[in-house]
Every structure is written in C-alpha cells, then in structure tokens.
Specification:
The complex is a heterodimer. Chain A has helices spanning about 1-30, 40-55, 60-85, 90-115, 140-160, 165-175, 175-180, 185-210, 220-235, 240-260, 265-280; strands at about 120, 130, 135-140, 215. By secondary structure, chain A is mainly alpha-helical. Chain A has one domain (about 1-290): ABC transporter involved in vitamin B12 uptake, BtuC (Orthogonal Bundle). In chain A, the strands form 2 sheets. Chain A has a two-stranded antiparallel ribbon with strand order 1-4. In chain A, strands 2-3 form a two-stranded antiparallel ribbon. In chain A, a hairpin with a 4-residue loop joins strand 2 (about 130) and strand 3 (about 135-140). The longest helix of chain A has 30 residues, at about 1-30. Chain A is globular and about 65 Å long. In chain B, helix 4 (about 110-125) links the parallel strand 3 (about 105) and strand 4. Chain B is globular, with a radius of gyration of 23 Å. Residues about 25-30 of chain B have low confidence and may be disordered. Chain B has helices at about 1-30, 45-65, 85-100, 110-125, 150-165, 180-190, 215-220, 235-245, 290-300, 310-330, 335-345; strands at about 35-40, 75-80, 105, 125-130, 145, 170-175, 200-205, 225-230, 250-255, 275-280, 350-355, 355-360, 365-370, 370-375, 380-384. Chain B is about 45% helix and about 20% strand. The chains are: A mainly alpha, B alpha/beta. The interface between A and B is large, with 43 and 38 residues.
Chain lengths: ~290, ~375
C-alpha cells in the first residue's frame, strides 16, 4: 500500500515537472535556445496569482487569468529585449543572457515581495480521493495537475501539426533561413513560441504553488532545473518526451527517497539521467527528428 | 536666466560646503567613536534573519548612543550584506575593515560565520555572532556567540522530549545539506539513546528537494511516530505542516529555533501550527519589562513588525559588547588587536541579563543560558 502512495506522490511531482518541461522543450525546439529564465517565469506567475487572488482578494479565476497574461507578456518582453538582439550571436552568449535574466527576475521578486515565504492557497477545489479505508489519498491537486498536463500536451500537439502558426514553428525549427525565404515570419514565430512557453510556465506556477503551497523568489529555480533534466531525459524538443521524462523523473525521485535514501534522492535522479544519456544520447524520444517541435 | 541659475547654484553649493565643513568639525571635536561592524544577509534566501539582526542592532546602538555611548564613546554601526554566502561574507568583512571597524558583530548565519572566523582570527578582531550556531562558527578564541550552539539545541530537545514524556516513538525530518540541521540532528540522535523514546524514522531532504515531503511523511507515518522532530528552518516546516495535514497525519511537532518565523509566513494557515512546540531563546509575547519595551520599540521603528529571536539575539549582542567593553575599559586609541585581547578576558567575567535570558560565557565562546520552550497556542507563542 505504501508503495502506491509513494508512486502517487511521484506522479504528482512528475506531472508538474512535465508541464514545466513542455515549456522548456518548446522554446528549445523552435528557438534552439535554453531559456533558463523559464523557471523564474513560473515564480512570477505564482506571485501574480498570489497578489491578485490572495492579497487583493479577487476571484481565483480572474487571478489565474491575470497570472497567465502577466507571464505571456513577460515572456514576449524578455524575448524582445534580451534574446532577439542576440539572434545571430553564439549560443553561449544567449545561454549566459538567459541565466542573467533568471537572476534578474529572482532579485526583482526579492525586492518587491521580500524573502519571507508566502503561503499559497490552493486554487484547486477538486476534493481529494480516499481509497483503501483512507490509507491512500490522492489530492485534488494531483488529479488536476495530471489532467491539465495531458490536455496541454494534446492541444499543443494539435496546434503545432494542424494550424498555420504551428506549421510555421515546425518550419522555423527545421531551418530558420529556409523558413524565412519561404515567407515565414521568423521573429513573429519565435515571439509566439515564447508567449506560449511563458503561458505554460504560468499554468505550471499555479499548479506548483497549489500542490506545494509556498512561494519564495527562488520557487521556480530548482523545479526549473529538474524540468530541464526531464526535458533532456525525454529528448529535448519532443513534446511527449517532456511529459514522459517529467513523470519518470518525479517517480524516480519519490521511490528513491522512499526505498534507497531520502538524502540521495537527487543523486539517484541524476545518475539515472547520466545512464540514459550514455545509452541514448538523444533522450528517450529524441530520435524522431520530425517530431521535434 | 541661465547665468542667474548658475550663480544661485554656485552660491548654494558654497553654503552646503561650509555647512558640511562645520558638521565635520563638530564631529571631530566631540567624543571619540567605537566602530562596530555587522555582517549578514539582507537579500537572498536568509534575508529575514539578517534584516532582523540589522534592525535590532541599530535599535540597540541608537539607545546606547542616546544614553551616552560606551565609555563615553559614541558607537558607529555599519552593515554589509553577505547574501548568506561564505565568500561574500569575507568580502564584506574586508570592506568593513577598510571602513575602520574595531569590533565585529556577526555574522548572522552559520556557514558565512565559519568563513569569517578564519579572517578575524588572523587579524585578532573581536567577533561576537548573535546567531551563528554551528560549532565551527566560533572556532577561534576571539569569537563568541549569543545563541545556543547546534549540539546544545539537539541535546536540549532530546532531554525535553524524554523528561516530559511527550512520545515513545519519534520521527525526524532534517535537511542533510544544511550544517545547522544536521548538527542538531546528530546530537539529538546521540542523546536519544539515553532517553526513554526511540527514533523510528529519520528522513532527510536537501536544498534541491525541498518542495515535496509527502514521501518522507508517508514513511514516518507508516513507522508509527507520535512526535515529529523538525530541526529545520520554518520555510520548509510550513510546507511540512501543510502536507502532513492534507494527508491526515497529526503527530506532535517539535522544533528548534529555526522554526521561529513560522507564524510570520504570509497567508500561512496558523491553525496548522497549533500545538507546535519549539525551543527558542525568545518569545515576543513574554510579559517581562525588557521584552515588552523591546517589542514596542522595535514595532515602532520598523513598520509594526514583531521581532523574532534573531532580533533579540542581536539586541543582546550589542549590549554584550557594551558590557564587555566597559568591563575591559576599552578606549578608541587602542588597536583592534588590543581591544580583542581585553574583550576576550572581559567576556568570561561578565553576566548579561538580556532578552534571551541571563547569559555567561566560557573562554571557548559558548554562551550558557537556559533554553526556553514555547508552544503555539491560538496563533501565538505561549511560554511553557
């Protein structure tokens, strides 16, 4: 019985990693850059919802909507200000800029909200499910997170394969120069990618803060890195890879904590990553290049 | 018009300079000063501690200066941020040395303190940390502390649980990547062997796995623990309380001074903290005259914020420096090293009755005072 409860705890954590990883993998797949500020956009989303929903006491749906809008706008602005001027520069320069943006966001949050943690009130009102005489509990947050995660994955896949803007993304991801010659607006497409990625980050932020109800300026940093690991694990650029990678990572972390050592949880997670990359350097789903988005 | 503006601004500038000159002259003619430096995080994840120490220390300095200073010397206090980072703390220390610091009140957190102690030892600079609780934080003989050391807290906690028969089966969650938390846990574990209870599950987490505690809580629950010992900081404790509640696990929660701050977490459901017991040297709701005055002054000066135990430790630290400096008869002509030698001797001879109890010191720098236990009742600390 306890095995199942560890498993559920792992899936719950993993599906949050998965949503974050979806944003990472999208931006990487299309703009070919690692947006290390992604984790911090999650934090901004969390704070936005906290401020509107809890400090100002507005309706939670309005708060969530504002959170998503704030993050989307922030994503577009960051792309315009920090990444677009570097489009021709080496990928290392872009990477360093991304790390810089990440620290900028963290420290701005520190200035505005202070370092004291804020307790988040869950936005999920789905009741928890009790099984086996209450020995097993599945929280509403877990259920909602998993459902949201699957919906996002399906919608994203449909969007990319069926719509014009989505196909433009595919084209840009294949070959930026050729896409431009074919009349695709490359800058617009990349901006759209950032907008979608950041909106996903906001959703991830809301779910993360609901499941683990606390928010500090570094809230997004570690989940961001774990999700990046998950994206690499599943094959960076691959949408189903992000989902599977995230959930596997969460489950390994939870089972590792339970059965091997709670101290070594991260060591176990990252050893698995190293082994997977040694055996299959492109990650689990990385090989199917035409699925890269 | 432009010319006139220029003339006026030139005139203004001249006036300012003359005034500044007089101001400077005035200062030089008054009594000598004692320069005390402070180091601690006022940004970054541990900022809440550094900010409390800085606020309380500045409050104490203001009071001392208003009452005539130390041995007739006015105290100048300068603060440097270390962001809870050992390297930055050493840089901050060097900055303060350039400023002319004679005594160091700091640093606030353990790991940076351990790094700075190496430098103060080299310079033979007197150092008093309000809250650096790791054993190594005062490794050198020029360093003293106001707070309890980590081992002391671990031993005191185990004894308290044993003596008061709070539980037979105890679970622990500690942060294995944090020197404070592991320090307490190790001593707690050692002392537990002499006590009538058993540690049935000891689970760890690290700084990178501190969002999800459900696995650890499940294990501890399965082991049948009646009491959960949390030698950790309040940020994680707030999460643990929430997650334990949502899985229907309700043991007695017992923590150390790191849990102080729990009630200050924004939007935290205080009902979850009901019944939490913690060892802390200071309770802001105590009714003794000293505490009441300190809390009122602190609230008035800092936006109605209730001071935590870090603030109390810092306030005591400044008054300890005053007591030792008066005992040692420090004057501003003495070199940093002479001040240090005199202070070292004086520290073992003084007894300070401060906010955190009646404190005496041993030559190795440890403060000896009685731990206090408080319980959270109706969303506030109640002394036990």
């Amino acid at each position: 019985m306890s095995f199942i409860s560890y498993l559920i705890s792992g899936i719950s954590l993993g599906s949050i990693y998965a949503i974050i990883a979806l944003g990472y993998t999208m931006v990487y797949g299309i703009a070919k850059m690692l947006n290390f500020a992604h984790g911090d956009i999650i934090m901004v989303g969390g704070y936005a919802v906290f401020t509107i929903g809890i400090t100002c006491g507005m309706n939670k749906w309005i708060a969530m909507l504002v959170g998503v809008v704030v993050c989307t706008v922030l994503g577009i602005v960051i792309e315009k200000v920090a990444y677009k001027p570097l489009r021709g520069a080496s990928s290392l320069a872009v990477l360093i800029t991304a790390i810089g943006v990440s620290y900028l966001l963290q420290n701005l949050a520190l200035l505005i909200f202070g370092s004291n943690p804020k307790s988040f009130t869950s936005v999920v009102s789905v009741p928890m499910i009790k099984l086996a005489n209450g020995e097993l509990t599945i929280t509403g947050e877990t259920i909602v997170t998993i459902i949201v995660c699957i919906i996002i994955m399906v919608v994203l896949t449909l969007f990319i394969n069926k719509t014009k803007a989505g196909r433009a993304m595919l084209a840009v991801s294949e070959d930026k120069g050729a896409a431009q010659l074919m009349g695709v607006n490359v800058n617009g497409t990349i901006a759209l990618t950032f907008a979608i990625g950041s909106a996903l980050a906001a959703v991830a932020g809301i779910l993360l803060c609901s499941a683990y109800p606390q928010i500090i300026p570094t809230t997004g940093a570690m989940p961001g890195i774990k999700a990046f690991t998950a994206a690499v694990f599943g094959g960076i650029g691959s949408i189903p890879g992000a989902l599977i990678g995230g959930i596997i990572l969460g489950v390994i972390e939870s089972l590792g904590q339970a059965y091997i050592s709670s101290q070594l949880a991260d060591a176990i997670v990252f050893s698995v990553l190293i082994i997977v990359l040694l055996v299959k350097p492109t990650g689990i789903f990385g090989k199917k290049i035409n699925e890269k988005v | 018009m432009k010319k006139l503006a220029k003339k006026i601004s030139a005139l203004l500038l001249a006036v300012v300079m003359i005034v500044a000159c007089f101001a400077a002259c005035g200062k030089n003619n008054s009594n000598a000063t004692l320069k005390i430096g402070g180091i601690g995080p006022i940004t970054g994840p541990a900022a809440v501690y550094g900010q409390a120490v800085k606020n309380a220390a500045e409050l104490a300095v203001k009071e001392i200066n208003a009452a005539g200073g130390i041995n007739g010397m006015q105290v100048e206090f300068s603060w440097q941020d270390d962001e809870h980072d050992a390297e930055k703390a050493v840089t901050a220390y060097n900055t303060l040395k350039d400023w002319g610091m004679q005594i160091l009140m700091g640093t606030v957190t353990s790991a940076p303190c351990t790094a700075v102690v190496a430098s103060t030892k080299e310079d033979n600079m007197f150092q008093l940390t309000p809250s650096g609780s790791a054993v190594e934080s005062i490794a050198a003989d020029n360093a003293f502390r106001v707070c309890f050391s980590d081992p002391n807290q671990g031993i005191a906690s185990a004894k308290y649980i044993g003596t008061n028969n709070l539980a037979k089966k105890v679970g622990v969650i500690y942060n294995s990547s944090d020197v404070y938390s592991t320090g307490i846990y190790n001593k707690f574990k050692a002392e537990a062997e002499n006590q009538p209870f058993e540690i049935v599950a000891a689970e760890a987490f690290t700084d990178t796995t501190k969002t999800n505690f459900t696995t650890q809580l499940n294990k501890i629950k399965a082991a049948g623990a009646e009491l959960l010992f949390l030698p950790i900081y309040y940020q994680e404790a707030a999460l643990i309380l929430t997650q334990a509640n949502s899985m229907g696990f309700k043991p007695i929660f017992f923590g150390c001074d790191g849990l102080d701050g729990l009630l200050a977490v924004d939007n935290f459901d205080k009902a979850l903290a009901e019944g939490v017991i913690l060892l802390t040297p200071f309770a802001a709701d105590a009714t003794d005259e000293k505490t009441v005055k300190f809390v009122a002054d602190y609230k008035a000066a800092y936006n109605n914020e209730v001071p935590n135990q870090f603030a109390a430790d810092a306030y005591d630290a400044i008054y300890t420096i005053k007591a030792a400096a008066e005992k040692a008869n420090i004057n501003s002509n003495m070199s940093v090293s002479d001040i240090c030698d005199a202070m070292k001797t004086a520290m073992t001879q003084i007894t300070v009755t401060g906010l955190t109890g009646t404190i005496t010191w041993t030559a190795d720098g440890e403060a000896s005072k009685d731990p206090k236990t408080v319980k959270i009742v109706d969303g506030a600390y109640k002394a036990m």
